[in-house]
Amino acid sequence: MAIRTFLRYRSLHYFSRTLFHCYFSPLKSTQYCLSSTFSSYLPTCNVFRGCLFMSSFTDAETKKEPEKNPDLVNEISRILSDYRSPHHDIESALNPFSGSISTDVVEQVLKRCKTLEFSAHRFFIWAQKLSGFCHSRESFHILVDVLGSSKQFPLIWDFLVEMRTNRSCEITAEIFWLVFRAYSRAGLPADAIRAFNKMVDFGIKPCLADLDKLLLALSKRKHVKQAQEFFDKVKDDFMPSVKTYSILIRGWGDLGEVAEAQKLFDEMLERGCSIDLLAYNSILDSLCKAGKMDEAFNFFTKMRSIGLIPDAFSYSIFIHGYCAANDIHSVFRVLDQMRRYKLVPNVFTYNCIIKKLCKTKKVDEAYQLIDEMISEGVRPDCWSYNTILASHCDHNEVNLAHRLVSRMERNNCLPDKHTYNMLLKMLIRVGRFDRVEKVWESMEDRNFYPSVSTYAVMVHGFCQKKGKLEEACKYFEMMIDEGIPPYTATCEKMRNRLIGHGFAEQTEILADKMERSTSSLIQELASVMRGNNACMKLKHDEEYSDENFE
């Protein structure tokens, strides 16, 4: 750890001095800066230890459990990232690790490299050919999920056919559940339904549980109409349960189609299904989401008369409904009723109330709810604290923000990327650069590795502050050394600031450094640093518009 940190800061300080001092130095010194400096220092393989190998390039999180063989997983994940092109000889790069491969290592690598679908597939095939090695069932499922997440549906079907032919792994209904979900996420409900019908081709006779999974996958992605149409065609063959109806009722409720939800509720009664709490809560939820709070309350008052006792979720439905209606008084009225019946909301319901309190500038009451959560045995999560932190940061309340982060740690809730992004952005905005450095240094101590968005906060923030361009360059270079591809907009910001301050030559230095990176994405971004950004759009740029980094 100490050596890695030393190497990082040696590079940062040397580059920062070189970048700004060579501009005022004789030509000979500048030539040395462009050649010897960058050829003598290349990123080591450890620079990929952070967020490059999480489930996406844009999402680094605090590690919750120690991984087995973390160095081996890091190394193999780095190879999958570097050898993502079809013409790359990934097998030769992987061969030195053939004696260390286990099912656990394969599963970890596949989970980390979910955005590297082709590399992950080739890695899976390479491991399958190793003498004496046999993939776990979990590995097969993970790969199907990886391919589905990246919409590689032809590969999925080829893979399933190969599994059937080679009998390398039993094809279970659970694999098809992943396929349903992937097609639904991709906006292809008809293909999800076709996948359900193709289960028989793989020796699986669909049952009610499979139908429920299909309807749930479709409904979660707002394909409720298609789900309903298919349900109407097959319901006589499957004997739908209360759970089946509840899935569709909730789906229509999420779309605000209360009439459709009530029609299903009535059909359920006509078919003689015994109404349980799940079904009743589903119709309550659909009414509240449609803003029909009075009608929902009338339904609620009839629950006990038919032998149903409202649970915590029954009340929470009303809390969410009243929060959406900006009726904070009714929210607390329902909360008081829950307390009377010794019912405790879950963390999501508490968070909904906390968010509403902070929006109405009732932060003290939000803190009281945090205290109540802890006393009731409900552990506040990052969103609980981050909602309050956002209020402190919006009002530049530095001390209160720091106290809240300290409280998070005391309560065993480690800060996440949103916590750090908000805190760092505020500290840069108000000019508390001493605290910026302390917060940054503390992140590694807490096993948090900055993601592309956190680096963007630093680069964009320092670019906006007078006299801090050197700091912006330092963090930009750190991001490159870590193997984390910047946002295209971050490259453009860095380039424009350098040119605007008379350091046009230094954009070439940065571009050269980017071309030397072991990350192919960073190599591509070198053209942006040179001003050739036509049609340059990376996958992780999609998150850029969702966050304000300045």
TrEMBL record:
One of its GO terms (cellular component) is mitochondrion. InterPro entries: Mito_RNA_Proc_CCM1, PPR_rpt, PROP1-like_PPR_dom, TPR-like_helical_dom_sf. PROSITE patterns: PPR (PS51375). GO terms for molecular function: mRNA binding. GO terms for biological process: mitochondrion organization; RNA processing. PPR repeats lie at residues 172-206, 241-275, 276-310, 311-345, 346-380, 381-415, 416-450, 451-486. Pfam families: PPR, PPR_1, PPR_2, PPR_long. Keywords: Repeat. Residues 326-466 form the PROP1-like PPR domain. The keyword NAD does not apply. NCBIfam families: PPR (TIGR00756). Belongs to the PPR family. P subfamily. This is PROP1-like PPR domain-containing protein.
